[in-house]
Structure formats: C-alpha cells, structure tokens
C-alpha cells in the first residue's frame, strides 16, 4: 500500500535562514506520529509545510501520491484538520456552533443543516465527553475542554489526518493525559508536535526528532529516545529507564555536574 504522506528532501527558508533541511519520511494511514525537538528545531514549520501553509519550499510533499500544492484549500480541508496551540477568538459562540464548523468544507455557502448533520455533531461531542456542555459558551471552558471541542470539530470534519501543534501546551497533567489518550483512541492518522518527551513516548507509536531543521532520528520511541542522542540534541546529560506500569521508555535530564560534559549521557 502506498504511503499516505511522503516528504522528499523538503527544504524551507525564512529569508536567508534555513529552517528545514532535506526532510524526508513517509507516513502510513493510522499512524500516530509525534514530532519532537528543541525550541526552534522546525517542528511547527514542518506542520505548516504538510498543510501547504508554508510557501516557497523546495522538495516535495505528496498526499495520496499527489503533490500537496496541487490540492485546493477546500480539498485539503476535507482531508486535514488542524488543532492549533491556541484557539482563535470565537466571540460568544457555543460549543455546538464551534463543532458545527467542521461541516463547512462539505457544504455550500447557503446549505442548511439536516438531521444527519446534527446527529454527527452530537456523536462527536459524546465521543469527547462534552455532550452536556453543548450549549455552553466556548470561551468559558477550561483549556482541556476547549481542546476537546476542537477535536470534536475535527471529527465532524471527517478529516483523514488530524494535525495538532502542541496539543498539551498550557494544560495541567490530568488534561495532558486525557487529550492524548483521546487522540490515541480515535483510530485515525494523527500528526502532532509534542514538547514533553515522556508524553510522546507514552502515546505516540512513532517519533521524528528534529534539531536545527534537520531530521535526526525517525522510529519507535524506544529507538529514537536514546540518552546519548538526546544529550547531544538538548545539550544536557540524559538518562533513561522503563516505566514499570506502562512499559514505555522514560527519559530524565539534569544540569551537568562539575567536570561533566553536557553531551554525556548513558544509553
């Protein structure tokens, strides 16, 4: 089966600064891909290129075998749903109205919602556990609840690929795990940037590690998150072990002790 998404030697620059350098990888349907790396590594820029929101890149991004630049914005909206770090201002819209926006790529300007549309909205709200808040104003919800509303909107959008930029940013520990467990249970293709490496290891099947715009490693968390590699990328000594409860890899960073090089780590 051909790859759902294929990047080949993707490069992108902002002025004379090279942000992404020769990024190549393939993504198959149903994968949960976490993109990790230090601040400024190019994670969000990579998402923007995947969504054709970053112009003038070189190399290619192909979706279902076709160059991403060959799709119209409406066509891309039917296949990709984006959940950004922070929700845009939505005035005083209700939760139901926000989720209803997922219907827009599939409707004409003056189309009315039918019973099937309303049922899809109700199903999505039920799936994210917010059916009882359908009439609440979006702006009064907690950060975790707002993220779940936006995921419900993506479900109504019927997108094949859910793209999230730091979905756990600014959330407390409970909501971080709640959101990522929800994504894991959706059974669709997910691409997300993740700041917390241990959350990435627990919930992503596959990780891409970026540093200074380059792809350093690509694979299962236990292969990507080697302490020696992370010590070099994050410039801090790193150790790792296995969580006895989840069986997932865990990593720890610390400031170097006197006389210890910051790049030292124990594999």
Explain how this protein is built.
- With 267 residues, the protein is of the alpha/beta class.
- The protein has two domains: 5-225, P-loop containing nucleotide triphosphate hydrolases (Rossmann fold, 3-Layer(aba) Sandwich); 226-267, no CATH class.
- Helices cover 30% and strands 26% of the residues.
- It is built from nine helices and twelve strands.
- The protein has a six-stranded mixed β-sheet, sandwiched between helices. A four-stranded antiparallel β-sheet has the order 2-1-4-5, with helices on one face. A two-stranded antiparallel sheet has the order 11-12.
- Helix 6 (173-184) links the parallel strand 7 (161-165) and strand 8 (189-193).
- Helix 4 packs across helix 5 (143-157) and helix 5 (143-157) packs parallel to helix 6.
- The model has no long low-confidence stretch (mean pLDDT 90).
